[in-house]
Amino acid sequence: MSTRPLNTALVGDYPPRRCGIATFTRSLRNALVQVRPDWKGGVVSVSDSSTAEAYPPEVAFEIPEEDSNAYLRAADFLNVADTDVVSLQHEFGIFGGEAGAHVVPLLRKLRMPVVTTLHTVLQSPGEAQRRVLGEIAALSSRVVVMTHTGARILSDSLGVPAGKIHVIPHGIPDGPFVEPGVFKRRLGFEGRSIMLTFGLLSPGKGIEYAVRALPEIVRDVPDVLYVVLGATHPRLLRENGDQYRDGLVDLSRRLGVEEHVAFVNRYVDENELMDFIGAADVYVTPYLNACQIVSGTLAYCFGAGKAIVSTPYWHAEELLSDGRGELVPFRDENGLARKIADLFQNPDKREAMSRSAHALGREMTWERVADAYAGVFSEVGQRSPPARSPRAERISLKPLPRPCFAHLHRMSDGCGVFQHAKFGIPWFQHGYCTDDNARALLLFAQMPERLVEEESLDGIRSACAAFVHHAFQTEIRRFRNFMGFDRRWQEAHGSEDSHARAIWALGALVGRNPASPLRRWAAALFQIALPVTETFTSPRAWAFCLIGLHEYFRTLHGDVGAGRMRVLFRDRLREAYRQNASDDWPWPEDIVAYDNARLPQALILAGRFSDCPEALQMGLGSLRWLMDHQTGCGGEFQPVGSNGFWRRGARPALNDQQPVEAGAAVSACLEAYRATGDRSWEAEAERAFDWFLGRNSVRQPLYDPSTGGSFDGLHDNRVNRNQGAESLLSWLLALLEMRAHREASRES
Known about the structure:
Rossmann fold; 7-stranded parallel beta sheet
């Protein structure tokens, strides 16, 4: 592997912004300069209203936190600055937009690998947080967390591939073990037993519990002084003033311990901070929330060799295990008092704990941490960037293939479209089915009449229509599905889904081709075949019917009966979603099976055209979730495989990825784009379409230009080289839809 110096840009907060991530970014940059003298890279800093002072010279670009366009300008800046790798420091609160969503378009637009350090990992994020984190993880070549707990949550609960995750601890300054007396004299704390808490003040720090513990501690340790070091968090100060600090001061007075508390109300630089840490005998973190994956203050004090008493939030639980510190239940001032007093009264125990922490902390020095980061940067930066462009804000729009209908001719006869092929040859043994003949009619509905004539496809179109007509049984108003090559039907009636797909095709012939000779036939059969669908129980059948009704209403939007059915299916899908969905499973079923994107597509259409914002949001949210989880390590589209599907609580199957999934994703994402104008949906459609062209998990194209067909799917390391009708028609439908979308975009 080449070891050329990499131009690595750091993106995050940076001083003079006053927060822990700003300090972290600066410390990481300085350490990289020290351990890799040939290291090159600048800083792109996100600023808020508290960043009033000028940035130091290493900051090359500034992003005002709430200016969404500035994030795109920053991406342009990084793209033209010969940047090899971007190191993103992520925490939900430092970027603008809902759950920090403004950073996602920046990542989509970048043309180089991204290594993201997650300073917050939530086990149960909200829907917006999960969506944003999913996007960031998908767009990142590597994800760094600072604890093994964080790695486990990312992999098990949030679905980030384990091979993508690196654990690198929070860095700390290096230095020898020094007794507190040296620093106490420097700060004027001589003769006092010092307990310390530091960091930006906010109610979640739980400092009131440490103050409430003081009366009991003072009884056993009369010379104790509790130093609370740090300014109030700037955002809290803007919104509520200094109410929290004032409340702590008032509490200490009411408890009669005001002489034993020192509130140092300022933001100190690192040199002064290390003096305060050095002066501490016991460090206290009485935080209130278990879900804190990393604490820079904890790491600094542990590495400096401090005896620590903490509540058991995730980072503390991991770092202080095996007797390396003392853990106390949340909101337990009596427990805090006992543990802190015990450490003051047992100096040998305190010193042993301190020296053990200091020795282990040598593995966490900034030098070690920077070296680990540099290794990750080299790993991703020396390679060609993974297939990132599919997740970029605008895909590189290479020319689309010209539609080729040779395989459609090959796969058809006077009865209709054959169901399966052996390689590129029709497989007569499996006969025909209504599903595929309906798909072919959908294709013809999308196709300009001139193209039907140019490609001599009218005979196939008529045969497909005749097949669907013959499949319908007037007595029971149901379509049969499977017919053998001997022209004998193989069942009394077909599935609900095949019936609904026929409804969809008929609706498209009515709505898209007013001049078509088949339109009157399609409308009549649509009217007869629709009512029975009211008895259907399959959510996919409801979705197919909804999409078909939308097509029908392109021209016959006054049909009262059809309008009632559209409301019926919309409400059934909404109710299925309400009954089944949760924050981590926003889906109307307990399984993600086949033709999956059609479910959110139907909700989006129903929401748009029946004045139902709830259905629209359900559709957009479930589609975003589905596309996020159908993303491989390199950003490529990776649909749920048909070899097991994806059951709730299990992992999605990866083998036997099917063309029908890519085609459905193209349609649904373009519908989401039309509903919202959000260009990211356009990019998602391109990403799904590129699956056919080789941007997939095995890096092999599904489209076969020698036949005009599509291979039947992807196994774990190869394509399935059969070229059946479903695959062919999924490819052609997606291709025509992409061509139509690009043409409409050029015209607009």
